[in-house]
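Entry details:
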Amino acid sequence: MQSNCTLWNTPMEQDAIANHHQQQTQDALADLYAMRQTQAKRFHKKNPIHPFDDASSLSFFSEKNDCSLILFASSSKKRPSAITFARTFDYKLFDMLEFYLDTESFRSISQFKTKKVPVGTRPLMVFSGTAFESTVPTPFTMARSMLIDFFCGEVTDKIDVEGLQHVVVVTADEPTQGSGDPNDPASKPVLHLRCYLIRTKRSGQRLPRVELEEHGPRMDFRLGRVQEPDENLLKEALRKPKTSEERTKKNISTDIMGDKIGRIHTGKLDLSELQTRKMKGLKRERDPHLLDDHEDDEGGVFVEEEEPKRKRKTTKV
């Protein structure tokens, strides 16, 4: 999926309690935008949409802004301080998940008087809790996938270690048995999202001492409504396209000079039948008696060549 994301707000109820929830939700959305502002767009105009009833507006904004991840904040008496994560594929709604923000425990980045993380740096991510370890799709595994998509940034095969300056830790409380209605958000485990600065200090050894300092934001969520991806759309999204790259051929490689090297596997060779080059000097005498008579002191064998007989010349009288 693409890494761009869009953040906007929806109309909220206007009263004393609603204003408090509205301000906290706005601050939470602003902090999330600040952590991804290099690859995100933020809209301040209020949009009267209900994505779980009609998602056409999300598809329109996804295509218009060329983004695959959408966050929007809403608040109502039934669902106060809700931040909805929605993903799209091919500008079609893929899946959605609601995060209900706990406004009492929320702390924004501005409330932490620490050094701020440079814009565009990529965080380390840690997920702790048995809820994230499920082998079947659950709302918690979907939340983990969405948060990874939100913080991952551009895909690269190399990264500078000096750029790893902060870590995002997401902890899920252990589920309790007999917690009531499973569809009730209050009965679900709470997700704790914390962001820390990574500080390295001298330890007197080769490896430095690593310390974590809370950076913000501090958010606690409960998971709400979920919309699973369509089966056909999921199959299309997981399909790997054919590339123009040549497939690697077995036993064929290229060296640093660009020459192609091939490896051939053969069976065991019988060297006794190997045909070698014949030379006169390597021929042995066939008569075994001569070999015995002409051995030198060192055990060598030599052959004496007979001088050719000359024919006598005869004269006729």
About this structure: Residues 5-237 form one domain. The helical segments are 16-35, 56-65, 139-151, 231-238, 288-293. The mean pLDDT is 80.
